[in-house]
Design brief:
mainly alpha; Four Helix Bundle (Hemerythrin (Met), subunit A); two-stranded antiparallel sheet; single chain; 2 domains
Length: 275
């Protein structure tokens, strides 16, 4: 005979299991974030002991994997509705390691070390700019009670994953295609330019709240078309360099358009007042 069990006890167990399952969902996006940290940490370990060209390539691939995990964690958090303040902070700390420290060390040993102390300072400025950009992002993306805001269409300053992606894509392309015409001086200028874009107030698309307009479709279609042409005519590895560079170019072009529109509005208002 089946033992009698009050209905209330079954309901209580069901509620406890449901609550525990809900808590476990909060761990899921953080696991992807920590996977990104693992990739960045392993890349640093590879570079720490007399790195060769193969080690540069392996470290660059690890940072690319970190980019993949970084792109997933936020989307998983939004799909499971498990966004949290600790998730925002953890994601930024992970980005400093995987897309700040790891790429700076990679580019230093790959190219900037030939400049001595100046090359070391250039790499440090990249890390510092990335940390400042992430700190500003955390302040702007959370409310007074610490809860994260819904992502907008634009983000202020070049995201540090995009800046790191440009650098490591150059390392990958150099390994696969041979010696590219990137001297330490050119690389240092590129690193400083990316650092400047990160701490700037220039808006860049976040692609988290993508609302298609004719301008968005035109820009994305043009960038993808050129990417395919480069992959077929030049080399597939160069397509990644162009695609990430196109993201920066789109941000610059849209900023210039916004400035021109503001200038026109100011001129029209001034003419109306004078009339």
């Amino acid at each position: 005979m089946r033992p009698f069990c009050p209905r209330g006890r079954h309901d209580r167990r069901f509620v406890e299991v449901k609550v525990d399952l809900r808590k476990s969902l909060f761990i899921l996006p953080n696991l992807f974030t920590l996977s990104s940290v693992l990739c960045g940490y392993y890349a640093i370990l590879i570079l720490s002991d007399r790195a060769t060209s193969d080690d540069f390539y392996r470290a660059a691939l690890l940072i690319i994997f970190a980019l993949f995990f970084d792109g997933i964690d936020g989307r998983v958090a939004r799909l499971t509705k498990t966004q949290s303040a600790i998730g925002v902070q953890l994601d930024s700390l992970a980005d400093v390691i995987s897309f700040g420290v790891a790429p700076a060390i990679l580019v230093y040993y790959w190219s900037l070390s030939e400049l001595g102390t100046a090359g070391m300072l250039v790499g440090f400025l990249f890390v510092a700019a990335g940390a400042i950009r992430l700190a500003r992002f955390n302040v702007m993306s959370t409310s007074d009670d610490g809860q994260p805001h819904e992502p907008g269409k634009y983000t202020q300053g070049l995201p540090i994953p995009a800046a790191a992606g440009i650098l490591i894509s150059i390392v990958v392309a150099n390994t696969l295609t041979g010696k590219l015409p990137f001297t330490p001086i050119i690389i240092s200028a590129l690193v400083l330019m990316l650092a400047l874009f990160m701490v700037s107030s220039m808006p860049f698309r976040s692609f988290k709240d993508l609302r298609l307009s004719w301008r968005t479709v035109l820009l994305i279609s043009g960038a993808l078309g050129i990417t395919v042409w480069i992959a077929l005519r030049v080399h597939p590895s160069m397509a990644l360099v162009w695609l990430l560079a196109a993201y920066v170019i789109i941000g610059i072009v849209e900023s210039l358009i916004a400035l021109m529109n503001k200038a026109r509005e100011g001129i029209s208002k001034a003419s109306e007042r004078s009339a």
